[in-house]
Amino acid sequence: MLPRARSGSLHAALLALAFGVLSVTAAAQRGPDPFDACARQLRRTITAYNDGSHLPRLLALRQLREPTLRPLFRRIAQHDHWQMQVHAILGLTEIDRESIVDRWLVTRAGAAAQEALFANAIDLELVSREHVRELVQWEELAPAPRLLLIGELVLADEPVDRSLLAALSGRPQETDAGLASLFLARLGDPAALSAYTDRIGELPRRDRNLRIMWLLEAIRQYEVAAVLPWVVDLVEQRERNDEVAYWAIYTALLLDPPTGLRLWNRALGAEPAERDRIRYGMMLLAAAEHVPASSFDRLAGTSDLTAHMAAAGRAVASGTNVAPALTALLDLGHPKTTSWVMTAVEDRPEASLIYGHIVDSIDDARTGRAERLALAVSATARLFEIDPGGVLRRLEEADDDSARQEVLLLGLFDSRSPAAGAAASGIRRIGAGRADTLALLLIARHNDELAPEDVRRLGLVASGGGRVSGGLQTQAAWLYLKHTGGINRALKLVFEDDA
Asked: Rounded mean pLDDT of 324-351?
């Protein structure tokens, strides 16, 4: 088990749909009966394929957050395939938050499914503190998912069962023992962690280094400052591993910036090569909110990239000129710094400016077209949360059937706001292009009644028309069944076939 990454709202479903919708070019098929086509889409969704093609379809249905999906998700939650169980329970929880404490559903899933379920539910903010307190009492839970929940209480400085942690710290499973020992160290009892580090010290070198890097990730995630001396020793020991030392320095930067900066400066060296400026610069950017702005002075090298990295780091560290510095770095199209900007800008007052810049510069990208479009979809979704008027204005100004219009429409798919459906209603739909189909799907999601022609077109999309991905065809299938009253009939048909 790896500690989950706290990445905020990544809009994973949106990105999956974006890549599909912008690459599929199926022509409209007018022959099949729409109901039969919808049933086929559902069969593809409830069947576990070796290539994983069923998972984007499940993501697409989850994105609908449609109460009528409850019977489908409850059936899928009983599937033997653990990933399908996870998606189904998450889908139910996105409709009704109390589903995460449905004891029958959760405890019948295996350990791998429980672990993935809680990791995703916590990251997506689907589980409340009250839910966590209830779930950690369930003795039926496997140790790994139970430790994920305990970790949330530890982070919140809430009481936890130390005797349980002590018992788990002695488990033969190294990750279970490691997390339990780490939590005890944070609570002021270092003995178990000392025993654990001695234990992994006996492993072969490669396994030992992998386990140490896993532990460093957990230390960062759960903010265990008490282990700083051990972290520093990983850097300063004579026979150190360079990769372990790199991540130990980063961990020290977050736990204790002055100590981390001392180690960072020494590792960077007096005359660093450009590749080292970039590598260690990424580390310093990740800790930008924890270090002085002057720390970035050593980054600026001979390239535009390191110069802009230094400027962006100073801006975030000082809180000045943030938007110009981050947009300049974005415009370089460097994948790793772009990912950092998207993380760094969350919850900042400059967020709307950054997201708007990404959307407005779709055609000016230096990176691959698909990557820039996917980034713009995510930016649109985030922008709509904080400045819906900005997104709607851009949608009104976008040319019909343009990539910009498609991106803006896709960015609305993760919103529950009726404004998303209303905005789509204003799109001029005169054909069967992707933008027309996206607008139709948004309208169908946010309206209880559709014009007969729109219902017919939903059936065409579910049958393979509309030039969209399999995930969006699956959305169209469910919405068609909903608007024609065919859900119960379709579920009976597909699950009888599956029996």
From this structure: 94
**Nearby residues of 239 by Cβ (< 8 Å), 6 or more positions away:** none
- CA-CA-CA-CA torsion sign (84, 90, 94, 100): positive
DSSP 273: -
- Rounded CA gap, 241 and 381, in Å? 41
∠ CA 155-157-163, nearest 5°, is 95
Grouping H, G, I as helix, E, B as strand and the rest as coil, residue 485 is: coil
Encoded tokens for 45: 């969704």
Residues, the chain: 499
Alpha-carbon span 148 to 113, nearest angstrom: 13
Give the separation between CA 97 and CA 472, rounded to whole angstroms: 25
H/E run at residue 360: helix 351-360
Token digits of residue 25: 């070019």
- The CA-to-CA distance between both ends of the chain, in Å, stands at 34
The distance from CA 113 to its chain's CA centroid, rounded to whole angstroms, is 17
CA distances from 464 to 31, 41, 71, 401, 439 (A): 10, 10, 25, 19, 16
For 119-154, write each residue's pLDDT tens digit. 999 999 999 999 999 999 999 999 999 999 999 999
Using CB atoms within 10 Å of the CB of residue 310, give its burial: 0 to 12 exposed, 13 to 18 middle, 19+ buried.
buried
pLDDT band at residue 243, thresholds of 50, 70 and 90? very high
Strands (E), 103-162: none
Q: How far apart are CA 408 and CA 441, in angstroms?
A: 14
Of the candidate ranges 121-125, 433-437, 451-455, 481-485, the one whose mean pLDDT is the lowest:
433-437
Which ranges of 189-241 would DSSP assign to H, the alpha helix? 191-201, 205-221, 228-236
- Residue 366 makes CB contacts below 8 A (sequence gap 6+) with 331, 332, 333
Q: Which of 5-19, 413-427, 463-477 bottoms out in mean pLDDT, i.e. has the lowest?
A: 5-19
- Residue 271 clears pLDDT 50, i.e. is over it: yes
86-113: pLDDT as tens digits = 999 999 999 999 999 999 999 999 999 9
Residue 364: is its pLDDT beyond 90?
no
* DSSP sequence for 19-82: HHHTT--PPP--SS-HHHHHHHHHHHHHS--TT-THHHHHHHHHHH--GGGHHHHHHHTTSS-H
Q: Could you give phi then psi for residue 257, rounded to 5 degrees?
A: -50, -45
